[in-house]
Amino acid sequence: MVTPAAPAPPPPPPPPGRVLVCGVNWLGDAIISMPAIQAFRWENPEADITLLVRPSLLPLWNMHSAPNRVIALPAQTSGLRPLAQTLRELSLDTAFILPHSFRSALPAWLAGIPRRVGTPGHFPRDWMLTEVHPPAAGPGREHQVYEYLDLFFPGALRRTYPRPSLTVPPPVVEQIHRKLGNLPTPWIALIPGAARGPAKQWPSEHYALAAAKLMAATGGSIITLGTAAEYDACQQVAAAAAPNGMNLAGQTTLAELAGVLALSAGVLCNDSGGMHLAAALGTPLVAIYGITNPGQTGPLGRTQRVLQRSEHRSRDIPRRSPKAQKALAAISPEEAVQALLPLL
Questions:
Q1: Which CATH number fits domain 18-152: 2.30.30.180, 3.60.90.10, 3.40.50.10860, 3.40.50.2000?
Q2: Structural domain boundaries of the chain?
Q3: Is the predicted pLDDT of residue 172 greater than 60, yes or no?
């Protein structure tokens, strides 16, 4: 008896031509996704890439070279059908959906994009996908960056990746240079806040002491950065570096924030979106970690140090965690200063 031949494996999908990337929603996550998108661009130089992101991240991706165009995700559900029509007019053939949510997969499905690729999620979301690619686990691949690499390159088990790359518009750089021009150099940026709250925030008193020590050791200036809600904490830190302290909390756009970080000699910060932005700009930094795991969400820059005391580490922590706050407070201002000075 002749044994029938095994069926041939299905042919691989054709190289993408017109691609939609549904981007993630937070600054830090967006920057962690950049290596995968850059690698995809480099391997598909002729691809036409449309990036779909929340409006607050438009300025970030306008500083990145990979997408051909960036479109804002409407805030209201009522805006999804007009968006789907816009996407249909682009004749897209492939969609990579980076977030895990149901809503993130909806635009590509409504637009009828024939190939829709995403990571596993809840049943209604998976039903809208044509390909589901779970991240490959394994030693040395714990960082979140590999989740996105495995989405674009399933089965490749990549170990290396390009660093995030951003270019601040020259007019923004010139504007920030004028704003800081009267301050003695080196300019050192401190970011005392974190969107996740106290569980990721080194004490403001520690930042203030570090600011004074950095100014005394370098003869330079301290620029504090953050949101309008973090103004008071940033002012406390900037005042410790008087007369060479400047508080810009709540006074910068995302592009201007990038401009300050790009011109800074170094950055002292928490585990935050600002940390990832500084790393993507290639600015030397020291990041203060409590109990979040830098092996999973650490900065992807070239010149950096992470200070951490806790051996208990987790990717997800509540906004208020006594254990995290204790671990953060255990790192002294002297340690942070001595870690940053050699990087300047």
A1: 3.40.50.2000
A2: 18-152, 170-343
A3: yes
